[in-house]
Structure formats: C-alpha cells, structure tokens
Specification:
Layout (H helix, E strand, L loop, with lengths): L15 H10 L27 H30 L4 H12 L5 H8 L18 H13 L8 H22 L18 H6 L14 H6 L1 H4 L2 H32 L2 H5 L3 H8 L2 H21 L7 H10 L3 H7 L1 H14 L1 H11 L9 H5 L1 H19 L5 H39 E3 L13 E10 L10 H4 E9 L2 E7 L6 E8 L3 E5 L10 E6 L8 E6 L3 H11 L19 E4 L18 E7 L4 E6 L5 E5 L3 E4 L2 H18 L12 E2 L2 E2 L1
Parallel strand pairs: 1-5
Antiparallel strand pairs: 2-3, 2-8, 3-4, 4-5, 6-7, 7-8, 9-10, 9-13, 10-11, 11-12, 14-15
Helix pairs in contact: 2-3, 2-13, 10-13, 10-19, 12-16, 14-20, 15-20, 19-20
Pfam family, one: SH3_1
Keywords: Guanine-nucleotide releasing factor, SH3 domain
Protein name: Neuronal guanine nucleotide exchange factor
Amino acid sequence: MSVTALFRGKFGQKSQDNQEKHRAATVYPGHDEDEDDDSRGGFSRDPIRRNSRFYRSMRKKRLASSEAESKNSVMVDISVASDSRHPEFRADMISSYRTHNIHSRDIRMLSEQTAAACTVEDVRGKTMSSKQADQENSNLRSVRITTSFLYQEYRDTSKQQEIEQRRQRENLSPEVGSGTGAAGSSVAYPPTIQLQLRNNARSLSLWQNLEAVQNSGLLMQLPQKEVIMQEAMFELVTSEASYYKSLEILETHFLRNPILFNTLSQSDMHFLFSNIEDVMKASERFLMDLEHRMEESILISDVCDIVYNHAVEHFSVFILYVTNQVYQEKNYRRILEGNQAFREAMALLEKHPCVRGLSFTSFLILPFQRITRLKLLVQNILKKAEENSEREANAIKAHQRLEQIVKECNEGVRKMSRTEELINIEKKLEFKCKSVPIISHSRWLLKKGEVQQMSGPNSTRTMRSRKLYQPLYLFLFNNLLLVTKRSSSGDKFQVLNSCTRAMLRTDDLEDQGQVLANVFNLRLLENQEDREVRYMLKTTSMSDKLRWMYALTPNRRTRFMSTSTHQTDSPQVQCIQSYSSQEPDELSIEMADVLNLLERTDDGWMLGERLHDGERGWFPSRVVEEIQSKEVRAQNLREAFRIQQAQEGGSSRIGIRVKHTDGVFT
C-alpha cells in the first residue's frame, strides 16, 4: 500500500505527458540530474521526489528488512503447520512459501520441527492460515487512500469536523435543554458518533472505509474504542501525506519555477525559502516510515513510536525554519513592494489551478502549522490510549518531544521579534528622569497604548474637559513600566516615570456617570526616585480598562477560576473562527481550540486560557461559542488534565487517576 495515492485524487489528476511537461518546465535550465550533488549550494538541487534516489535507497533498505522479517515468519508458520493439530494447513503453506523463494532444504527442516502454540494479540485471537495471510497481504496491496486535500484544506475541514463533533456531543448531553445534570456524573458518548460525523460529502478519508479493512471483517471484531483509535492514528498518516503534497507544490510550483527564480537574487531566495529543502527531506522520511507501518498490517499497531524517533532525529529542522519566519514575512513584503517583476510572476503563479486559490504565504507557513498540528494529533491519540499501555507510553514520549520543539520554535520567533521591537522603542524614548536601560534578553513588550490622566473626581465640577484630561502613553514590559507623553513632534516619547512591574498596584473605580466611566487607579509604589506616585487613568472602553488592569497586575483575581483549579463550573468556549492577535496581550486562536474563560466584558472581549497548552490572552467574543453542557466541560478538563500529566513527565504511567469529586478533578 502507498499513501502516495493521496496525490492521485480528482483534483490535479494529470496524464503522464502533462506531468513530464510540467516537470520540464519547473527545472532550471542546464541543471544536473545527479540529485546527490550538493556541492553547488543554494537552491540548484532537483526537487525531492517520492521516487528520488534518496527515497529509493531508503525504500530498498525497508524492503530488505521486510524480507528478513518475512523469512522469520515463515519459520513460525511452517512449525505451526507441522503440528499434528494443523495437518490441513501443512501442504498449502509449504507450497505457498516455495513461491517466496525459500530454499527447499529450509522447508524440509522446518516442516520436521514440532511447533509451539502461536498466539496473535487482540483481534487476531486465532492462528492465521497461509490462505488468510495471503488474502490479507492481497488486501494490503490493494489499499488506496483516496483523499485529495491539500494540507490547508485538510486543516480547515478537520477543525470544522471537530467543532461539529463537540456540538453533537453537547446536544446529546442529558442536561442540555433540561438544565439539569449531576456534577459528578460522566456521560459515555457512543463512539460511533465520532465516526459518523466524518462520514459526509466533505469528510476526510476514514480507516474504516478502506476496502481492505471492510473486506477483512475487522470492523465486526474490533470494539468501537479500538476503531476510534485506528481512526486517530490513520488521520496522522493521511494528514502527513496531505502536508507533503502541499510542500511539493511549494517546491515545484514556486521554488523551482524559472520565471520566479529569475526575478530574485540568491539572498532573496534564501530569505523566502530558508531551509525548506531540509524540511521536505524530514517529511519524506517520516511519511515513508508511516507508509511502511501501514504496509505491515491493515490493523495499525502504533504510530507514536515513529513520531518520537523522527522528532528526536530529524524534526530539529523545523526550529530553524520557523525562527526565520520573522525575516521571511518582512522580506516578502519588501520584495513584493519593490520588485515589479516578482509581483507580476507571483500573481500569475497564485492563479494556477494547482494552488486551488491559496496564497503563496499559506504555503510558506506550512512547517509551523504542521509541527503544532502534529502535537495535537498525538494528543488526540494519547487521550484515547488505554492507561499504562505501550501506546500510552509512546504517545507520552512523542508528545513531550513535540512540545519541546514547538516551545523552541515559539521562543525563536519571539526572541527575534522582541529584540527588534525593543530596539525600535529605545530609539523613540527621551528620558527626562533617571534613564533606564531598555534592551535586554530577558525583557519584552506586553502592552502599549494611550490613556488619559485625570486630575481627580473633585475637580470635575470646576474644570473643563480640556483641562481635566492629560494624555499619557504607557509602555508595559514583562518587568518594567514606562509612563511617557508624546513630544510636540509626535515621533518621540518623553519618559516621566518608571517602575518595576512587581511594584505596581491597580484599583478599580465604579462608574459614576460618563466622566468617571472606565477609570482606574494606578500606584507606583517605588519609582526610579524611590518614591510613590499615583495616577487616575481613564480608558476608551470597559474592555480596555480591564485589559490594562490585568496586564499591569497579572495576579489580580479574575471573575472565573483558572483551569488549574479543575472546576467544572468554570465556563468554556470553543473557537469557531480563527483569530490572529493584533496586540501583545491578545491570544491567537485556531478553529476548534477549547478555552477556559477567565473574564468577559460587556463590549465583546474575553480573557481565556487555552486548555491544550495553558496560553492566556484576550480575544473577541464573536469568534467563539460557549460550551453549555457541564458534562462536555468535564470531559474537556479530564483530557486536559491527562495531557498536563504527560507534559510533567508521564506521571499517568505510574498509576495516577483523575477523580471527580463535587465538581472538582483531583
């Protein structure tokens, strides 16, 4: 079986002649055919192909290993046939193994041996005859995965299906509609629901829909939980094939296009594509091993062991690529604005049918999207794995390694962008007081913006509005606050006061009419001159006031409890529309993300904590919907708690269980 059949769907189906023409059109003129010649450097190497020399050599090693395993299995099977309990199998099996070029002397020797009982785990249960084995091998060879999604399309479809699945679970909850439900109960949702939700016109490929699976009779023997586990592992495989398909378009349609290549300098090519070739090699190796695992048996034994090995050996290339994304985006905008030939060539390439209306930038961000999505897919397998099983152990190891890679990717991106931001801010500052060094590796910007300083509530009756408000501009870093005001020129900021963040205190003021609406007190317990300073500050909206107060004093108590308390009464929301943060204190969220709600405002903003990684931030309420069912919220917390245990060292492997008592998980 080959997952390359993913690339043969109804979209982009081409004849052999068209493929040859396309290949000829996307290779540089005068290019060598030796794929292993990397001495020329740059981007002159041929595109990586599934039938490339690298791929064929790796495949040959795999086949050699498979033949060795096959010969070992022959010894076991013939010994079983030689047992007096299986006389009817003996002639058929020896005849069958002659077709595999096994030496007759080996057959005679093996047939004379007395067999020990041979057991097969789980669904196999009974010893499989040679005819059954041949039938299964025939089924394996006939497996075809028919999805034709690009990775961008796969992500959108998969996330939408996850949202619909959660909605259906909530609709089936006994408390929805009746408003009741025991806090300590746990609804066991029928596993078939999770499968039916993906069986529609827009669904992804399903393991259970494979012809080989349906012909094998496994669906009648396997428990529903195992079918769901097979689907989870199968999705990881098919999504990797979809991801590789999109990478191939990035390489063949954009990177290797001679028209686009001629519009760019070598340095610009490096800025745009970075080490994408190394990323493709890592994906090719990974996909090949996943394919090999599926070729072993239609019943997938595990995939997380493969994920872990590749995460350790090959996935470090993601860190370099993602870290360079800051410069990649900036240089892409620069080239697009200043290079007309590039702009025209890019517009033409983006209109080609093979990209399906997707932008060039959607292909550039694929590696970071993939490594984060891969972590979530492993999380999904971990949630479904039986506790204290080998699958769980492999999933925990794979998840921990992927979590580390994602963290290093995020830190790399943040470090570059934060340092650049600090340099730009320092250039705009003019200290009218004791100067403070701004640039530091341990410092980054949390929030900035303009507020109005008020003279005080008693002066509102005597002073006009124009004298009541004094505009201030605040720069809040993770460990420092700068209180400034704009210079007369407008491009500089005069620093009036500075204070460490730990020495800040805020007090909310109740609204007392329009003048005192959205007002709070800010105290600097110890400024740069070691004295206390007080400010009465007014913001433009209620949400802006709360965002400033929570940013200035992060330990301030929120309206709702944090995820760490494991309170099922805390509200939860799921994202139904992706949102990219516009301010440093905002949180970028993706479709199907589940968040624990900490705070909400009347003007359409929420403060939330994402369950799968604990990240906090503000986002508009229009992009989420609230999860009403207490049972669904409880299940989300159980799954988040199990993932948390995996991140903290796999303590769930040594017997820790999640206990639900009076609405609290302990």
